[in-house]
Amino acid sequence: MGRALPPLTMPFWSEPMTEDTPDAPRAPRTPRTAHAPRTTALGAVHRALGATMTDFAGWSMPLRYGSERAEHQAVRTAAGLFDLSHMGEVTVEGPAAGDLLDHALVGRLGALRVGRARYTMICDANGGILDDLIVYRLADDTYLVVANAANAATVLAALTERGAGFDANVRDDRDAYALLAVQGPASPAILGRLTDADLPGLKYYTGLPGTVAGRRALIARTGYTGEDGFELFCAPGDAEPLWHALTEAGRDDGLVPCGLACRDTLRLEAGMPLYGNELTTATTPFDAGLGRVVKLDKPGDFVGRGPLEAAAARAASHPPRTLVGLIARGRRVPRSGYPVVDASGAVIGEVTSGAPSPTLGRPIAMAYVSPEHAAPGTEGVGVDIRGTVEPHDVVALPFYARAT
Amino acid sequence: MSTPEQLRYSKEHEWLSAVEDGVATVGITEFAADALGDVVFVQLPETGSTVSAGETCGELESTKSVSDLYSPVTGEVTEVNQNVVDDPALVNSAPYDAGWLFRVRLDPAAGEPADLLSAAEYTDFTSE
């Protein structure tokens, strides 16, 4: 028998924090300007590690610490440690929290069991994607919504507006959390050294409040790398001690700090869409091949239902375009925005993400193409790489799936 | 960040060695290699081709981006570094040494461009 799970009836942050962080300190919001990106609670750690920083969605984030390809390989073969504190958290709580989310989002969150997580989306009234989200049900009446940094304000505003009239509260918790991720096959062993939580019992897309290295954290088995791994939501004041504890615990397992550069190549190999690339307000979930996240059979109305029903019908009969994988036969790299062409040179689509794949050893891309060119093995497909058409193979996504 | 004294530099972040018997070696600087990240593919000018100062003559692909390669001088390419074609990571690990890119016989009619920078000037330029 494993250890009993900590009770999930109370949101974990409502419990007393550790002695030295009595009130889960909230850093004052610094003004967001083009010249002063915000730093996370781990800014000093990144500086000390000599990270190459990049401005991302108003935040100064680590791009890489050394070689991004080495960081990528570490996550595939050992483990990597990420600072994802730029992600935006919104708490929805109250008796009608589930009803509110069922109305505001495309998924059926009211049916989500406590302790489970769900990948979902928020759409505008036309069915266009405002953001993709992970929603954790922390208690019967409490959900944690995690948005992309660039869309967090939009998501917060939309949930607030759509939540009017529901017996539930929408709370801006963007500054209440830091977020660390430990990803890779060694991550269960590494995290297991620092927590009594039942990690073997923590299945993919679940999350439970627990203690890691003596600090309160929501321990979630989620990620954006295609590997096993965990995301740890904690008080900002606990981020640095947790980072150091994880670094120490993973030293002998090959854990390395990882930046956003390898996060992008990891998610691309895993065929995971990125908001702003594969997902935009001009795209419905059905157009993106992710219609399964839209629960048209859920009770009640929800924002975007009518247009999404039409998009579902269109996708079933004559989809305007299909998201596919491309693998370059050559060594030049297809990048976002490059035209995809057929054998005659006619444009049949557009690359949305592309990079040299460390795992495949070749450049790879995701692209929207016309459905008649979307079948794996379609001949004659190329990408116009700055004026020269380079041949590519059409493949099914993902490019990489870990052995399970 | 290393910026060897004996080299001269272009504002496109190439370096040029001292000229010996009319031939100079070209590579990209450590500053540029660091900014690119891991280089995964280099496309170099062909041996025997003519390159022109300030003109593109190849490209470097890294994880996040592609960058044009500019020639800092005008002349005929006498040799390209096949090792760096086979192992582009040399650009990151040894940009001034094993990661050199190509050699040029300078066109005497064109002379050397007047706008190449000294090591100190290049350091100032990159810290602006």
Automatic annotation (TrEMBL), chain B:
<feature type="domain" description="Lipoyl-binding">
    <location>
        <begin position="23"/>
        <end position="105"/>
    </location>
</feature>
<dbReference type="GO" id="GO:0019464">
    <property type="term" value="P:glycine decarboxylation via glycine cleavage system"/>
</dbReference>
<dbReference type="InterPro" id="IPR002930">
    <property type="entry name" value="GCV_H"/>
</dbReference>
<dbReference type="GO" id="GO:0009249">
    <property type="term" value="P:protein lipoylation"/>
</dbReference>
<dbReference type="InterPro" id="IPR017453">
    <property type="entry name" value="GCV_H_sub"/>
</dbReference>
<dbReference type="Pfam" id="PF01597">
    <property type="entry name" value="GCV_H"/>
</dbReference>
<comment type="similarity">
    <text>Belongs to the GcvH family.</text>
</comment>
<dbReference type="InterPro" id="IPR011053">
    <property type="entry name" value="Single_hybrid_motif"/>
</dbReference>
<dbReference type="GO" id="GO:0005960">
    <property type="term" value="C:glycine cleavage complex"/>
</dbReference>
<dbReference type="InterPro" id="IPR033753">
    <property type="entry name" value="GCV_H/Fam206"/>
</dbReference>
<comment type="subunit">
    <text>The glycine cleavage system is composed of four proteins: P, T, L and H.</text>
</comment>
<dbReference type="InterPro" id="IPR003016">
    <property type="entry name" value="2-oxoA_DH_lipoyl-BS"/>
</dbReference>
<protein>
    <recommendedName>
        <fullName>Glycine cleavage system H protein</fullName>
    </recommendedName>
</protein>
<comment type="function">
    <text>The glycine cleavage system catalyzes the degradation of glycine. The H protein shuttles the methylamine group of glycine from the P protein to the T protein.</text>
</comment>
<dbReference type="InterPro" id="IPR000089">
    <property type="entry name" value="Biotin_lipoyl"/>
</dbReference>
<keyword id="KW-0450">Lipoyl</keyword>
<dbReference type="GO" id="GO:0005829">
    <property type="term" value="C:cytosol"/>
</dbReference>
<feature type="modified residue" description="N6-lipoyllysine">
    <location>
        <position position="64"/>
    </location>
</feature>
